[in-house]
Design goal:
By secondary structure, the protein is α+β, with helices and mostly antiparallel strands. It has two domains: about 1-135, ph1033 like fold (Roll), CATH 3.10.590; about 145-260, no CATH class. About 15% of the residues lie in helices and about 30% in strands. Strand 6 (about 100) and strand 7 (about 100-105) form a beta hairpin. The N and C termini lie far apart (about 45 Å).
Amino acid sequence: MIHLVIAENDHSQWNDVTGKTYHFPKRYLKHFQRGTRLIYYKGKMIDKSFANRRLTKEPHYFGIGEVGEVFEDVNSLKDDYYAQIINFTPFDEAVVSKKDGVYLETIPEAKKKNYWRDGVRLINQVTYNKIVSLAGITKIINDAEQGSEYAYTSREGNSKQVFVTKYERDIVLRKRAIEIHGTTCMACEFDFKKTYGDWGTGFIHVHHIKPLSDGKGERTVNAETDMIVLCPNCHSMVHRRKNTTLSFQELSELIRNAKK
């Protein structure tokens, strides 16, 4: 599977909006297919005035996302395009372009002299996984992946090693948790149906109060006492920091304090 690295430098002729839209020339159009995963990259810092807007002065990767809609730049005389960026997740810390003196990206022999001039570069799954792993990104299960069915308790925790340790969520538990807790975020009280109408009906994330990745292996999970429902924003905040998972109480306190 092919993924992309997209360069977004401090000074640029392109009208990029980080995590929202990416502006690029027509020669890269064939690479921007909807759903293609990508990694953001910045070159070496040249202008020191950008120091507080970067994670490091060194060339580095700083976030991930996916390609959404692609549309023509109607104001361009050179057939340029925009790509919508969806599911953007910034890195908490920079992933520098080299590890132990070796570039994380594999540079083809034919491009050794000018590889870094390309603003859009193709990478394979192995390279993508390597960079994401170094960033400490752990996969947050989205609503479509969380499944459905019916039960009250079940056993979970069959570990698999990918580029991070992930655990199989029993699809039976997700539906039961929603039946018990509903689809209104238990932290911020956001209700997708009230905001988006029928389009938002039933949409919510399910969060395990006791992290399944604590190394304790398989255990019994109770949908009522071990699981809560959160909107994607609150769910992201729970998992935002590497090696730290906010408790429901801590998350609720952050929301209360922000409203003061």
